[in-house]
Amino acid sequence: xxxxxxxxxxxxxxxxxxxxxxxxxxxxxxxxxxxxxxxxxxxxxxxxxxxxxxxxxxxxxxxxxxxxxxxxxxxxxxxxxxxxxxxxxxxxxxxxxxxxxxxxxxxxxxxxxxxxxxxxxxxxxxxxxxxxxxxxxxxxxxxxxxxxxxxxxxxxxxxxxxxxxxxxxxxxxxxxxxxxxxxxxxxxxxxxxxxxxxxxxxxxxxxxxxxxxxxxxxxxxxxxxxxxxxxxxxxxxxxxxxxxxxxxxxxxxxxxxxxxxxxxxxxxxxxxxxxxxxxxxxxxxxxxxxxxxxxxxxxxxxxxxxxxxxxxxxxxxxxxxxxxxxxxxxxxxxxxxxxxxxxxxxxxxxxxxxxxxxxxxxxxxxxxxxxxxxxxxxxxxxxxxxxxxxxxxxxxxxxxxxxxxxxxxxxxxxxxxxxxxxxxxxxxxxxxxxxxxxxxxxxxxxxxxxxxxxxxxxxxxxxxxxxxxxxxxxxxxxxxxxxxxxxxxxxxxxxxxxxxxxxxxxxxxxxxxxxxxxxxxxxxxxxxxxxxxxxxxxxxxxxxxxxxxxxxxxxxxxxxxxxxxxxxxxxxxxxxxxxxxxxxxxxxxxxxxxxxxxxxxxxx
Length: 604
Ligand code: ADP
Ligand code: MG
Description:
Elements: H1 10-21, H2 25-38, E1 43-49, E2 55-60, H3 67-72, H4 100-106, E3 109-115, E4 122-128, E5 131-138, E6 143-149, H5 156-161, H6 165-182, E7 187-192, E8 195-200, H7 205-213, E9 221-227, E10 232-238, E11 250-254, E12 257-259, H8 262-272, E13 284-289, E14 295-296, E15 307-308, H9 311-331, H10 373-377, H11 410-419, E16 422-425, E17 429-433, E18 437-442, H12 443-460, E19 466-476, H13 479-487, H14 489-494, E20 498-501, E21 506-513, H15 521-536, H16 543-556, H17 565-577, E22 591-595, H18 596-602
Parallel strand pairs: 1-7, 11-13
Antiparallel strand pairs: 1-2, 2-6, 3-4, 3-6, 4-5, 7-8, 9-10, 10-13, 11-12, 14-15, 16-17, 17-18, 18-22, 19-21, 20-21
Bound molecules: adenosine-5'-diphosphate and magnesium ion.
């Protein structure tokens, strides 16, 4: 019998390895940027063409390679970073597997130019699908440039598997953000399809965060700092007011490497205690420095999961540092923490402080439904939005999704309600007597429905009602959010936003839809961007509907109100004018009918 085992040709073995390392264009960006960092670059330029499908180019001013090393770098398991397995435990560099370049070259066309400082000329290598096509001397400055073209040209299935450009670009940008945050001492320049997309000059951590995520972080970050023999923890956390319903902007770095850690994440959230509500996520940028021998970065191919030997202790240190920072800021809100901190002080427990309820500014003269057809139809209507004096951070109740549309007949219910009294319960609900049972209305959800239907109907008109803002609001966003808004600018205008591009990553809002409170414009837009980008992934076709839903949700998001009798009745009347009065803007149950029969049964 002949032997049947054969060595796979390199090109095939490399393609298999590539499956692990190169999942999408963003993985290429990550690997190449990490190589540039490991090469000691202080300036890295990233150029992305067609969301990375056609071209990804990374240029650095690092140490460069000799012509032999340049050739070697494309071999599998070729690395300058470790010599033995034991070295893995001391690793300080971003890479060490020696697989990235081999994997990338297996599934793309790669052109590398590189030169070391003292070499008279550099070298240029062209590799296609693991095969070196040419290598020749080239005039080049110190550093390395790697261009990756036609990614997955030889794996059509992979190519097909890629998401649409916006999504792939998001992945790339996310990768760049992680790296840029972890390496403030390096300047990054990003080009997208030939245009400058983002520039992060060398700076300190706080400036870098502001640079990446926009000016809104300028005044809302609290410094965290703690140094012990186990590890050093430093960075910034957001003030409780900046906590969001989604866990965006939560970043951990260990030895300048981004990582994910569920349990540390919970620790930080726990440290906020009652300062935030259970479903909110505070932003944070926490850097941990620990002896590389005490972590294992090797457990995950993309190295985003990390095992800590002293996980428990590090967790306690993080918790204390966050609590300390919050406690301090609560006592002296305007203090600018810089240096003289005595970390041996007792940590102040946030729960010992009262939760600050931020107040909302309301323009008392502003009638959100002025000019609306509804106002004319309903004499009971008062400017109930005036009543929003404060808002409370309260979790959304988890009501199973059902439709009560048929059970709740709007016509008869409205007339009935006009004559009966309403009760506001737990600030969030209105309970009233319907014809066939008790109606329980979730105020926020119902409000989002009312706003949604108003938005949709006004957007159909020639020009949706827009209220001009006396002092135009400047809104700065990070580059990818900016792009999101730019893409849908005409649609936003059709909803009544008077909004213009105002320089790099910046908009100026001169007017907003009649339903949006002027004082909340910035908050609403920010929330809107977040929701929109989430929805967009699923349903780009329904762009207008998407915008309307996101806007309706974000305008209603922050509010809890105390309502008077007549206001509740007017509110209900408005709700039942809506086509889908029992559902919130995003299709959740807004009204529950508890039938009298059912109540009767329960008392049996
Ligand atoms: P690893 O980073 O795990 O060592 P790679 O395949 O990413 O493996 O790179 C292989 C080797 O090529 C690296 O160890 C390094 O010596 C060299 N190299 C790659 N990119 C660069 C660069 N931008 N500048 C200098 N050397 C580089
Ligand atoms: Mg590498």
